[in-house]
Design goal:
Blueprint (H helix, E strand, L loop, with lengths): L15 H11 L5 H10 L2 H10 L3 H10 L6 H34 L4 E4 H8 L11 E5 L4 H10 L3 E2 L8 H4 L3 E5 L7 E5 L6 H6 L10 E5 L2 E5 L2 H13 L6 H14 L5 H11 L2 H15 L3 H9 L6 H9 L7 H11 L3 H12 L3 H7 L7 H18 L7
Parallel strand pairs: 2-5
Antiparallel strand pairs: 1-2, 3-4, 4-5, 6-7
Length: about 400
């Protein structure tokens, strides 16, 4: 874990809120002024620690080397150690999931790698981009087969979801953990996004058109193509608040690398059809604000603007609320998801979870334990809903 250098009172204005834009400018296309500002303020150690916490420490170190920046020894060591840690952690994670991915291929279960694993396979050098898990997208009709394959490969499932049919019908992913120690989490996606509205507005085969081959852990795998990956990165970032530097930098780097293969008219038309123009536009806008941008990024922002209705806006606003405001998130999900019968089925699953989920909430067994479990669950939801927001650090 990186330790942050205490901030000198004379530099008190350089809080994380102002340091993050500074890091973004250092990672942008014209970083010279930002690097001079960091050096002039004497904040290199603090900026390095914040960059590592944001998941872009290795990128900042690479950018400083690329532009010939004379780093203080402490900041250089900190970011170099972070890059070495990321490289070792990524290598371990990919080697740990190799058996599971190979078994899926043997069983002829098509899958795509998403997010960090896909980006590390086709875009980044080892050690630049950290991963917290391995995201694997399969087709909804292959869920049962894929789960059997993973179990046979020594993976164990995570906690039970609300009901047995909650995944894949109402929820997009299921957790699995490799048999290695420490275990590595595999997020088995049957749809690309958590927002239930998009399960109804996007086609079943979304992201599967025009895929690309890549090498990963000694295997040849597939990842989404240039258009689909850009859409996925943007919607994922926007639906988590659009503030994570690492995810926004992924968008910038993807456009820098594959922008020449992206038709903006096709991108905009696809976003309109799938009703995802708003999150794509917001993520592109946030990327432009964080790092600056070239003509392509500015054109992409303009091309995806102006195609959002009130339900689109509500769905994006509610997306980050699942963990901290579950009641509000559930209500917004029900309001924004098309299909009356589908919405009623979702609400029934949320209000009346299965015994497996209740057993995790309430471990005791006695007459009426399920009623007690329901009470415990409601009390937990109310506590989370009514808990005052923590002040920003």
């Amino acid at each position: 874990m990186t330790r942050k250098r205490p901030i000198d009172p004379a530099q008190a204005s350089q809080t994380p809120a102002s340091v993050w834009p500074l890091i973004g400018r250092c990672l942008g296309d014209e970083p010279a002024g930002a690097f001079r500002e960091v050096a002039r303020s004497g904040l290199w150690e603090y900026v390095a620690a914040e960059a590592c916490d944001a998941g872009v420490g290795a990128f900042l170190y690479a950018a400083a080397q690329r532009h010939g920046i004379d780093l203080p020894v402490s900041a250089s060591r900190q970011m170099r150690a972070y890059r070495e840690h990321v490289a070792a952690a990524n290598s371990y994670q990919l080697e740990s999931v190799r058996k599971a991915l190979a078994r899926l291929q043997i069983a002829k279960v098509p899958f795509l790698l998403l997010k960090g694993a896909a980006l590390n396979a086709v875009l980044y050098e080892p050690g630049l981009r950290p991963m917290t898990d391995i995201d694997v997208l399969i087709r909804a009709e292959d869920v049962s087969t894929a789960e059997k394959v993973l179990r046979n490969a020594g993976c164990r499932p995570g906690a039970d979801l609300l009901r047995e049919d909650f995944y894949p019908k109402y929820y997009c992913e299921r957790e699995y953990f490799t048999g290695t120690y420490p275990p590595v989490k595999i997020d088995l996606h049957c749809r690309p996004f958590h927002v239930l509205r998009y399960a109804r507005t996007m086609p079943e085969g979304a992201l599967w058109s025009g895929t690309m081959e890549a090498g990963c852990a000694g295997l040849t795998v597939r990842v989404p193509g240039p258009h689909s990956m850009l859409i996925h990165l943007c919607v994922h970032a926007a639906c988590h608040g659009g503030t994570q530097l690492r995810w926004l930098y992924d968008i910038k780097c993807w456009l820098d690398r594959f922008g020449g293969s992206i038709d903006l008219d096709r991108l905009a038309a696809q976003c309109r059809r799938w009703r995802i123009a708003l999150p794509v536009h917001r993520a592109l806008t946030a990327t432009l604000e964080a790092f600056g941008g070239n003509d392509l990024l500015r054109a992409a922002v303009e091309a995806t603007d102006g195609f959002a209705g009130p339900l689109d806006r509500l769905a994006v606003a509610a997306a980050p609320l699942a963990g901290r405001a579950p009641v509000l998130h559930t209500v917004c999900t029900a309001l924004t998801t098309p299909g009356l019968r589908f919405r009623l089925g979702y609400l029934a699953a949320v209000l009346l979870p299965g015994t497996g989920h209740l057993a995790q909430i309430y471990p005791h067994r006695h007459a009426g334990w399920q009623l007690a479990a329901h009470g415990t669950r409601v009390a937990s939801i109310l506590r989370r809903t009514l808990r005052p927001s923590e002040p920003c650090a």
